[in-house]
């Protein structure tokens, strides 16, 4: 039985790496946000609008506890998931937790490509965006740093770079 949970800031490649790693290892892949949307039949944005961040974080915690009980899975969490309740402690008890760590400039490049898809970022200028990323990383790093494993990710703009990251994770976890 194998459980791997990927954490990191938005744009760090959790879903992309998670899918590739799951395919290579023959495990099921779950993106926590997608799982929440599937179970609740609403988008994360709709849930935020209806129940606010506190309500969403409660739902997220409940769904994390569900999916983290599955066997032979890789789960990618939302960037904020580790920062609420006892989520990090729970994750490290249930799985091998891997922090996909990236510098603010790398995250900025990733997020700039998909900026319109992320409500928190859509109205920010480039200067505001990099400042926002730095501020959030400063707050979130103490949570992310509780992961058992850390993989530095660079701009994963090619399949080869994604494969290198997957291999780094496999090596870290002795897979």
Describe, in plain words, how this protein is organized in 3D.
There is one protein chain. The protein is of the alpha/beta class and 175 residues long. The chain has helices at residues 14-25, 32-40, 44-67, 87-94, 104-113, 126-144, 159-172, and strands at 3-7, 28-31, 73-76, 96-101, 149-152. The radius of gyration is 15 Å and the shape is globular.
Helix content: 40-55%
Count the E strands: 5
Radius of gyration: 15 Å
Proportion in β-strands:
5-15%
* Strands side by side in the biggest sheet: 2-3-1-4-5
The secondary-structure element order is EHEHHEHEHHEH
Average pLDDT level: 92
| C-alpha geometry | globular
Task: Let me know the largest β-sheet.
Answer: 5 strands, parallel
Give start-end ranges of low-pLDDT stretches. Answer: none
Count of discrete alpha- or pi-helical segments spanning 4 or more residues = 7
Category by helix and strand content:
alpha/beta
Any descriptors?
five-stranded parallel β-sheet; 55% helix; 175 residues; globular; alpha/beta
